[in-house]
Amino acid sequence: MDIVSEQDRERRRRELDSQDRDHAEGEREKRRQNRGFVQVYPKGFDRVRALMDSYPLAAKVYLFLAEHIEEGTGSVVVSQQLLAEEMGVTTRSIRTVTSYLDKVGAVVRIKLGGAAIYAYCLDPNEIWKSFDGHKRYAAFRTRTLARKQDNADIRRKLKLMLHGNDAADIPDD
User: Fold this and answer.
1) Would 63 be classed as within a structural domain?
2) What mean pLDDT do residues 82-96 have?
3) Most buried one in 11, 94, 166, 172, CB count within 10 A?
4) Contact predicate 108/157, CB 8 Å
């Protein structure tokens, strides 16, 4: 017959209380992180409404990209073939629609290598998937490395996305 002292019972109770507190804190942290959520700001809703009115396929692609952006960077890397399959259209349609999204400043599209694979960066003031404090790590707020001939165009697109028509007044780095 085991005899458990009062001290042993008290020690065990404290251990269980501590485990309960740790578990509760862990659960609170998980909820705080908004796992599985993509935040859409008023500017993002405006973007989606405008795309729906002007080019419904562009709205569909934009929302697909928004749904799949990488947490903390605001970007997603995807092939045009995969986008075409997901949207039920041809790769030619995807080339046209993603070019349009880039042109209107909904995304910054950066070609990766020779394949039809692009990194699509979304404006964190429209769509975001992390804590607000992490926006400084958004893909288009960091240094972008590219071939010299591409770099000026990418820099111009990023400035337009971040600063709109005022980008012309901002000097190059």
Assistant:
1) yes
2) 96
3) 94
4) yes
Structure tokens, 56: 């419904």
Q: Are 71 and 83 in contact (CB under 8 A)?
A: no
The CATH number covering residue 103 comes to 1.10.10.10
Q: Are 71 and 129 in contact (CB under 8 A)?
A: yes
C-alpha–C-alpha distance, residues 41 and 30, integer Å: 22
Q: How many domains does the chain have?
A: 1
The CA distance from 97 to 115, in Å, is: 18
Which tokens is 135 given? Answer: 């926006």
**pLDDT tens profile 137-159:** 565 544 444 444 455 666 666 66
Measured at the CA of 77, the angle between CA 120 and CA 149, to 5 degrees, comes to 60
Q: Backbone phi, then psi, for 109, in 5-degree steps? A: -110, 125
Locate tokens 């605001």: which residue? 74
Q: Is residue 12 part of a domain?
A: no
**How many alpha carbons fall within 13 Å on the CB side of residue 52?**
7
